[in-house]
Amino acid sequence: MPPNIGKLRHLRTLSLFTVRSTPGYGLAELHGLRLGGKLHIRGLENVESEGVAKGANLISKKELNRLYLSWGGSANSEGSSSNVNVERVLEALEPPSTLKSFGMNGYQGSQFPSWMRNGSVLRDLVEVKLLDCENCEELPPLGKLPHLKRLDVRGMKNVKWKDGEWYDGVKEKTFPSLEKLSIWYCPELILPNNMTQLTNLRIFVIGGCSTLPYGLKFVSTLQTLHIDSYTSTSLPDWLGDLTSLKTLEIWNCGELRSVPLSIQHLPNLSSFTIKDCPHLDDWCNWKGKDLKYVRHLPTRIVKYFPYGMISEFSESNRRSSCSWNCFKPAIKLGWMGLL
C-alpha cells in the first residue's frame, strides 16, 4: 500500500489499510475518504492515542457495510507503545450504524467499547467475528441484535456469557435470527442449558472443548454439527436426540475412543465424517464391534481420510448396503481469517 492514500479524495473502495508508525500510514489518512463496501484495518497496535484513532472518522462512512479491525499479525509494530490504552482506541473507532458484518482479531483490552453494547449502533449486523480477544471476560449483548445470523467466537480463554444475555423468563427472544454459531478454544464459555430460544440455529461448530453444551440437545432446528479438537474420550449419548441433524462431522479428536450408538436413531443424517481421530481407526476399519449399528442404516455416508485406505473402503462399498464415500486428500477446516 502506498503512503498518503488520503490524498486520493475520490477513492471509494479500500479493502485493506495497514497502520504503520511511519509518516503517511496513520489512521488520519482515512479521515476524508468516503469509503464503502469492505474495510479491514490492520496494525492497530501502532495507533499512538485515542485522538489518532478518532481521526479515522469511521462513524461518518455510511456506505461501509463490512468492517474488520486487527491488532498484531503481519502489521508493522515499530513504534508501538505499551502504555496506549487499547480500550480507548477501540472506543474511538466507533463505526457507522450501516454495518452488516463486523469482526475483531487480537484485541488486548479487557472490556468491549460502549458502542458494542449499544443496540442502535450495531442493529443491522448480520455477522460478528471475535477472534483472539484473550483478555475479555464478558461478551457484549449480541443476543439483542435482531438480524444477527452468524456469530464466530474464537480464542477467548476468559470470556463467559452474561447471565442476562439469554433473557430467561422474559418475553424478549434472544438471538432471534441466529443460524450459525461457532465457538473455538473458549474454555470458560459455558452455554446455558436453556437453548430452546435458538429457533433458527442450523449450524453449530465447536472446537478445542472438553464437553458439548447440554442445551444443544433442545435445539430442534440443528442440521449441521461440526466437532473439532474435542479433548474428551467420549461424546454424549444425547447426540441421538438431534433428530433434525443432517450432517455430523468429527475432526481432529485425538482422545476420542468411540462414537455413541445413539446416532443410529438419527433419521435425517445423510453425511457423517470422521477425520484424524486415531483412536477410531478400528471403528473406521470395520473392526469395531459397534460399527454394525451404523452399517445397516440406509443412506449413511461415512468419510474417512487417512492415506492407504481408499482401496479397502472401495471394496467395503461394494459389499455394503450403505453408501460409503472415501477420498483424499482431506480438506482441512482451518481458522477462518477476517478476509
What does this structure look like?
Residues 27-156, 216-277 form the R13L1/DRL21-like LRR repeat region domain. This is R13L1/DRL21-like LRR repeat region domain-containing protein. It comes from Phaseolus vulgaris (Kidney bean). It holds the Pfam family LRR_R13L1-DRL21. InterPro entries: LRR_dom_sf, LRR_R13L1-DRL21. With 339 residues, this protein is mostly beta strands. It has a domain at 1-125. Helix content is 9%, strand content 18%. Strands 1-2-3-4-5-6-7-8-9-10-11-12 form a 12-stranded parallel beta sheet, with no helix packed on it. Strand 3 (63-70), helix 2 and strand 4 form a beta-alpha-beta unit. The longest helix is centred in the last third of the chain and has 10 residues, at 310-319. The two termini are 16 Å apart. Mean pLDDT is 81; it is low at 74-81 and 296-339.
What are the key terms here?
9% helix; elongated; mainly beta; 12 strands
How much beta, percentage-wise? 15-25%
Count the beta strands.
12
Subunit organisation of the chains:
single chain
Side by side, the strands of the main sheet go 1-2-3-4-5-6-7-8-9-10-11-12
Using the CA coordinates, give the radius of gyration.
Answer: 23 Å
Give the N-terminus to C-terminus distance in angstroms: 16 Å
Q: Secondary-structure element order, as H and E? A: EEHEHEEEEEEEEHHEH
Structural class: mainly beta
> Total number of helical segments?
5
Q: What is the molecular shape?
A: elongated
| Low-pLDDT ranges | 74-81, 296-339
Query: Into which percent range does the helicity of residues fall?
Result: under 10%
Major beta sheet summary: 12 strands, parallel
Mean of pLDDT: 81
